[in-house]
Specification:
The protein is of the alpha+beta class. It has one domain (4-377): tRNA-splicing ligase RtcB, CATH 3.90.1860.10. It is built from twelve helices and 19 strands. It has helices at residues 12-22, 56-59, 76-79, 83-93, 115-119, 125-131, 161-174, 193-224, 284-288, 303-307, 325-335, 354-359, and strands at 4-6, 27-37, 44-50, 53-55, 66-75, 141-146, 151-158, 187-189, 228-235, 237-244, 247-254, 256-258, 264-267, 275-280, 292-294, 308-310, 317-320, 338-340, 365-377. Strands 5, 6, 7, 9, 13, 14, 18 and 19 form an eight-stranded mixed beta sheet that branches. It is globular, with a radius of gyration of 20 Å.
């Protein structure tokens, strides 16, 4: 039986979902990270290695979703008095939410890439051009942090927006795949025509996501009038061709950060918890993890559980949420976080605690920096966004 390495504790449905994925295609091994929870077809926090397949379900709809962090040559004390102004400037300069377009479309070399033709997604180029540098909603954010030496870090989390979502939807349909929770994953052979085109689409969406995060970090850096002194950047929804032992494999990570020895990653907790800069180390446990680690703290309740459900037209409460506005605000005040936007489904109470999650991955990564959030900017509660992960 193919090995599945499980870090931490998970509910039965999440583990069963992972085992279902392990039974489809040329699977050589799998990992469920400690922040894992149910996802579409494959768990978030799930990692699967294939000999010659890629998984549309595993990469997911938000192709290339990831994190970028940049330390700047300012200290928190330098800007402490200006925190509300800076937060509002970020909210004005960066576009958050559904279908938003950048008020100043960006001319970027990615729009000249041959991958648009290879992937058959040229018709999405103008939408993508308009959305480059927009953040979206859900758990996507722009944050400012303070490290242990007092220096400010800019942190962002989002992916490929409509380009990735529409590309994934297109190829899922072409492959006769099913969208849902309790369904088999949709996989493609890497040497098939559709497989090669999907890989081109995934590569393009990944490059687009990188460009968008870099643009937003640069925008915030300019707001701060600061210089970047360090950067950390990677995807956590993607398929990589990697060498493991004596084999070249496709490693599909959904909500999991690549962590080869010396490779650095930025991992957030929640809007009211510390984040970390970490790096991978060499060990048996690291190899068993397919050199993967968490991408966040992981949810402990669904969005609906957290904030409840209302009738959009009448405002009638259909289901009470488990978290109140006062509880969320009290947590944020206690942590010294200035929040713009956000909603109860992203409250700290809806997530695990990041130190607890990372403890399960001891011996696979080392923590370089601990980052305390003091500004969090997210889409507002009124925004619905189908492009979130």
């Amino acid at each position: 039986m193919t090995d599945l390495k499980i870090f931490g504790e998970h509910d039965e449905r999440t583990v069963a979902q992972m085992w279902r994925c392990m039974g489809v295609g040329s699977v050589t091994g799998g990992v469920l990270c400690a922040d894992g929870h149910l996802g579409y077809a494959q768990p978030v926090g799930g990692v699967i290695a294939y000999e010659d397949h890629v998984s549309i379900s595993g990469v997911g709809f938000d192709i290339g979703c990831g994190n970028m962090a940049a330390r700047v040559n300012l200290k928190y004390e330098d800007i402490r008095e200006r925190v509300p102004v800076i937060a509002n400037d970020i909210a004005k300069e960066v576009s958050f939410g559904l279908g938003r377009s950048n008020p100043k479309p960006i001319d970027h070399a990615i729009f000249d890439s041959p991958l648009w033709q290879d992937a058959g997604v040229g018709h999405l180029k103008e939408m993508a051009r308009a959305q480059l540098g927009t953040v979206g909603s859900g758990n996507h954010y722009v944050d400012l942090f303070e490290d242990e030496e007092g220096y400010v870090w800019i942190g962002v989390h989002f992916g490929s927006r409509g380009l990735g979502h529409k590309s994934a939807t297109h190829y899922l349909k072409l492959a006769d795949g099913k969208d849902g929770i309790d369904v088999a994953p949709t996989i493609l052979r890497d040497d098939s025509e559709i497989g090669a085109r999907y890989i081109a689409a995934m590569t393009l969406a990944g490059q687009y996501a990188y460009a968008g995060r870099e643009w937003v970090v640069e925008r915030v850096r300019r707001i701060l009038c600061a210089k970047a002194t360090d950067t950390v950047h990677n995807h956590h929804n993607y398929a990589w061709r990697e060498r493991h032992g004596e084999r070249d494999l496709w490693v599909v990570r959904k909500g999991a950060t690549p962590a080869f020895p010396g490779q650095r990653g930025f991992v957030g907790g929640s809007m009211g918890d510390n984040a970390v800069i970490l790096s991978g180390i060499e060990s048996e446990a690291a190899a068993a993890s397919l050199y993967s680690t968490v991408h966040g703290a992981g949810r402990v309740m669904s969005r609906t559980e957290a904030k409840g459900k209302r009738n959009r037209k009448t405002g009638e409460v259909l289901k009470e949420g488990r978290i109140s506005h006062d509880e969320m605000q009290a947590w944020l005040r206690g942590k010294g976080v200035h929040l713009v936007g956000g909603d109860l489904d992203e409250a700290p109470q809806a997530y695990r605690r990041l130190p607890d999650v990372l403890a399960h991955h001891a011996g696979t990564v080392t923590i370089e920096h601990t980052l305390r959030p003091f500004i969090v900017v997210m889409a507002g509660a009124e925004v619905f966004d189908p492009f979130k992960d």
